[in-house]
């Protein structure tokens, strides 16, 4: 029985540009601690094999100290480690894979074609390849079939299955089915996916182990698995992220916005980053997002509030008044009906709010 983990897309040294400078620096430090945490998991769970399917760095010219910290952490693993560089951390001049010394238990694939590494003690053959540029139009798996030699055959690649555009190692389903691999460990897709099976080959993307923005939501981690002597693969997803990105939609119609948000939140959000979309109907005053954000700030690591509320219908009814107020609302109501996007509708709604406040000599805040 071979015990392994499959991880990918660390994107070390990501900018975290949407956060404050202090929080961005803290998140970069946390991401650099990920390999050490992973090494502890490997050693505590008697893992034999570590498969890292590319984009471990956010660029091919990462900071040297980041690469040295990764190298040291991988060297602490009591396991064999294999790396297939991806489109962000491609193997080439200036790459940390070339400029940093890597420990003996780490093998980095360096060629833009499949190479085979033998591990006789485990009756294993591992096949992998490297991006050597930012794009890879030719599929690494094209024309490959593992020999029927009684060994376990595993593939390690950074790529996409049946993409609409051939830029990042396009892999065809029929190629996977014909590959003869027991398992194909993939990187590149940041959202973890359920394992797929084509022919006799199981393949999976673990996603990224830490989200970096609101396009990488929810639980993040890696796969832990086993392969028995017959080639049967068993996988378990291991949540591993320190912080989650979440988007929460809250309807504040006829409710106090703060109370509505607090009622919708899960119990523990202090470590997480939230974008809260406020929807529903409100009066002329809208939602005071700055004050609301300040009141809720200690509930989150970072909080972003977006006002997507609309004016209550009874306010638009006043467009029928024979008054300056009615004339103003009739014009905006027509613009609202012609709006093509949510952003356009929000602009009209905000114009109505501020205009009504001006007519009534109110401070909208």
Question: What does this molecule look like?
Answer:
- With 365 residues, this protein is of the alpha/beta class.
- It folds into 2 domains: 238 residues, Purple Acid Phosphatase, chain A, domain 2; 115 residues, no CATH class.
- The chain has 9 helices and 19 strands.
- It has a 6-stranded mixed β-sheet, with no helix packed on it. A 6-stranded mixed β-sheet has the order 5-6-7-10-12-11.
- Keywords: Exonuclease, Hydrolase, Nuclease.
- InterPro entries: Calcineurin-like_PHP, DNA_Repair-Maintenance_Comp, Metallo-depent_PP-like, Mre11_N.
- Pfam families: Metallophos (PF00149).
Query: What is the N-to-C succession of helices and strands?
Result: EHEHEHEEEEEEHEEEEEEHEEHEEHHH
Going by CATH, the architecture of the largest domain would be 4-Layer Sandwich
Helix content: 25-40%
CATH superfamily assignment of the largest domain? Metallo-dependent phosphatases
Number of strands: 19
Rg over C-alpha atoms, rounded to the nearest angstrom: 26 Å
The CATH topology of the largest domain is what?
Purple Acid Phosphatase, chain A, domain 2
Structural class: alpha/beta
Distance between the termini: 65 Å
Please describe the structure with a list of short key phrases separated by commas or semicolons.
single chain, 365 residues, alpha/beta, Purple Acid Phosphatase, chain A, domain 2, 2 domains, six-stranded mixed sheet, 19 strands, 27% helix, 24% strand, elongated
